[in-house]
Amino acid sequence: MTIADTPERRQLRELTRAFVTREVLPHLADWERAGEVPRELHATAAKIGLLGIGFPESVGGSGGNLLDSIVVTEEIIRSGGSSGLVAALFTHGIALPHMVAAAGARQVGSLGGRLGRTPDADDDLIDRYVRPTLAGTMIGALAITEPDGGSDVAGIRTFARLDGDHYVVNGSKTYITSGVRADFVTTAVCTMLPGSGALSLLVIDKGTPGFTVGRRLEKLGWHCSDTAELSFVDVRVPVRNRIGAQDTGFLAIMQQFAAERLTLATSAYATAQRCVELTVRWCRDRTTFGRPLASRQVVRHRLAEMHTRAESARAYVHEVAARVAAGEPVVTEVAMAKNVAVAACDQVVDAALQLHGGYGYLRDAEVERHYRDARILGIGGGTTEIMNELIAKGLGI
């Protein structure tokens, strides 16, 4: 019995599959063209308990851990959804964990450095943002990347100057998933000199004077997941909207990267698995020169290679995820898991589209969407090159 094959997780798979079949598949093509998923989908997913998977019941979640979240992500894609849908519907998976972690650790150590906040300030964030989001009535986003910063988290230049019981924020962010629809944005800011690496996390409400969504970004893939540029001009944010102590944001961001990267790795191998299933079905049904495509050895061998890559990636991601869930510090292994899964996905989606021929190039073909969506997986959450740097560091070089 694997981590993904327990009685409880089998039920979770069935619940997820029914949700996708009923609530997603009839509408996904329309959402792709609209450039976003409807807010009502969040409420529907929350009502059946899917939206809160991986978050403790004490903060309004459904319980479970990283492994349960992986099961949901995998099954959404295997059931005909997409990695873009996962990004749109579960953006709170990167917007909320810092708040949950800070509230859980509030009793640990000194309360010094909180700059006017009460010990219950992090609990207040739970009530104002976490619970409503997990109930499907709010949407959150995470804003880290800046136009001239890329993966350089320590080089963030969006500056928050303390002014009494408020911070005054100036700067900009880009490539922000769900940035158009979000009601609030968990925002990484520099709280000392810009670029100093002294970071804090502030929750900034949409509608706050000076905070604007610059424009909706059009993308190669993830069409149903809205993406935005954000601008902050003299935005006043209450100190009580800071997550945890000041200047602890960098560590908080780093601590959540493992879950984000494994979620992307899951999207990668699940996309590969789905493309194998679609292509096997196509090659059995598609006849050329009087014979099914699957009757040809070169096609059968290509399908065998695709299946092998997808299943191998799945096994390794599951192994690393189990270690992360157990609390092991496996930074190098997480980086390897992401790269292994992304490489498998890249190879499989390309082969899947090729075997589908001209039909695979049409927007009506599901493999066409997976082909486009797959390209971001080696960029988001830390590029393949950044992952290789982490792996090299783990080797001591």
TrEMBL record:
Keyword terms: FAD, Flavoprotein, Oxidoreductase
Entry superkingdom: Bacteria
UniProt feature coiled coil, ranges: none
Span of domain Acyl-CoA dehydrogenase/oxidase C-terminal: 248-395
Positions of the Acyl-CoA oxidase/dehydrogenase middle domain: 141-235
Domain Acyl-CoA dehydrogenase/oxidase N-terminal: 6-104
Named cofactor requirement(s): FAD
Transmembrane segments: none
Family assignment from sequence similarity: Belongs to the acyl-CoA dehydrogenase family.
Full protein name: Acyl-CoA dehydrogenase family protein
Species: Micromonospora zhanjiangensis
